[in-house]
Amino acid sequence: MRDAKRVIQMMAALLSLFSVAGAAESEPATTLGYDLAGVVKAARENHPQVAGAEAAVRRGLGGVREARAAALPRLGATLGYSYLQDPPQFRAAPFGEMVFGERDNTTAVMTLHYPLYTGGRLGAQRQQAEAEVDALQAQRDAVADQAGLRASEHYFDVLRAGEMIRVMEEQVKALEAQHAAAEKMLAAGVVTKLDVLRTQAALALAREHLVKARASEVLGSAALAEAMGLPADAPIRVSRQFDEPRLPAQLDEAIAIALQNRPEPREMAAREAGADAAIRTARSHQRPQVGAFIQSDFHRPSYMPRTGTLSAGVALTYSLFDGNAARAQVEQARSERERIEAARAALENGIRLEVTQRFQEVESARERIAATQAGVAAAEESYRLATLGYQSQVTPLTDLLQAQAELTRARSDLVMAQFDLRIAQARLQTALGISAQDAHAEG
Predict the structure, then answer these.
(1) Considering its fold, how many domains does the chain have in total?
(2) What is the mean predicted confidence (pLDDT) over 423-442?
(3) Is residue 186 part of a domain?
(4) What end-to-end distance do the CA atoms of the chain give, in Å?
(5) Residue 5: inside a domain, yes or no?
(6) Distance in angstroms (rounded) separating the CA atoms of residues 427 and 315
(7) Which of 2, 221, 304, 348 is at a distance of 20 to 30 A from 430, taking alpha carbons?
(8) What are the C-alpha distances in Å from 276 to residues 128, 129, 333?
């Protein structure tokens, strides 16, 4: 009996375990909700391109530590063993062969080296490494800005797709009502079957557009997830929560802000500083090098004279002739400095052009919104009059369907213009070097 009870208890425990596991497997994945700020933050932190740029910064920091270490004392140790075929000896008449060492010899030496003067080479190399880090950090910021911009664009694309779905659903609902009304009027003998077929065809086309709009929302969500550094199939939900961005009202002000805030000019400034340091490094090869050393010989070969275990000294090295290699290095470094200066001038001109283009895109989108709002108002009035006329049998069905199509087109154009403005604003703030968190007013 006890064994039977134990078996029953074990089976019950296993069944409960399987039921819990099955429930866990059937439970849907948690859907993550994001507003605009959350989308941009996730993209700037999680996207693989940003992670790669951050790794490059860490590599540059390692170069700085290496350059700084070159100016510190270097302590080294040497251990060795040697075996000689014959003992160390020499012939001295009239004494004959005289042995002054052993075949087996061991060596144990510890040496401390310290650079006293390098002609500015070590300091210039350190400054060059630090300038490289500054440039890599600016590159990382530029990559993060672009990642945030792509995420913003996809965020507004998803919201736009949702609004287009609403517009298409309203069209389908209106055409369903028109189709039902046409069938009733056909049953009453008021209209012909042609009107019913026309409403049916228009309804089928509207439903097709609705399916496409829903597919666009799904694809937009996948693109948004990828832009945020998440798997493309990650379940995410966007909320229409964003504030009006604070953007300059004048083009000249916008250009000045961009030249001050963009990471690309900071990168070029760091490149120029690195080129200056490279020139100083090249010049140092034309100067003498002075170093000091202290050495302790714990074990010396037996054939070496006894001079004590400690030794110290100073060494000066100077290149008397190198075939003008050092001068060529200086000329190369100067040419690189001039190239960077030209690239910086081209970059600043490109920033001015980009800001001008983005600024005009914002202005154009605002004008389009005003125009499409007027178009929606006119299309709504036209549709209202066509509906009344059709119900009164003074307006043909073709005019009603055309008015319905024009209303849907006008509403779609308004949605497109509204989100084109949002995307244009996001592109402008990126061109200004302003993050989404800084560009939006507090709610």
Answers:
(1) 1
(2) 77
(3) yes
(4) 71
(5) no
(6) 60
(7) 221
(8) 8, 12, 8
Domain around 405: 118-147+177-210+239-285+322-435
DSSP states of 69-138 as a string? HTTS-EEEEEEEEEE-SS--EEEETTTEEEE-S-SEEEEEEEEEEEEEE-TTHHHHHHHHHHHHHHHHHH
Tokens of 311: 């030794």
Residue 246 has which token pair?
């604070």
> Which are the contacts of 382, defined by CB distance < 8 A and separation ≥ 6?
403, 406, 407
Give, as one character, the DSSP assignment of residue 295: E
Cα–Cα dist 129/281, whole Å? 12
Neighbours of 265 (CB within 10 A): 18
440, 138, 428: which is closest to 262 by C-alpha?
A: 138
Give every CB contact of residue 425 below 8 A, 6+ residues apart in sequence: 245, 247, 362
pLDDT at 42 over 50: yes
Say which CATH number the domain at 206 has: 1.20.1600.10
Average pLDDT over residues 300-317: 79
**H or E stretch including 342?**
helix 325-391
Comparing CA positions, the residue from 105, 98, 117 lying closest to residue 301 is 105
Enter the DSSP assignment of 236: E
Q: At what angle do helices 121-187 and 397-431 cross, to 10 degrees?
A: 170
pLDDT at 409 over 90: yes
**Which secondary-structure segment (H or E) carries 301?**
none
Nearest to residue 273, comparing CAs of 212, 198, 203, 333? 333
Residue type at position 42 = A
What is the pLDDT of the chain when averaged over all its residues?
86
Q: Which residue has the tokens 């949605």?
A: 415
Which amino acid is present at 124?
Answer: A
Bridge partners of residue 99, in order along the sequence: 89
* Closest by Cα among 174, 184, 206, 202 to 398: 202
| Domain contains 400 | yes
Q: The tokens of 103 are what?
A: 């075949």
Tell me what the mean pLDDT of segment 7-13 comes to.
46
Residue showing tokens 């069944």? 15
Helix axes 48-69, 36-46, angle to 10 degrees: 50
Alpha helices in 230-324 (DSSP H): 251-261, 263-284
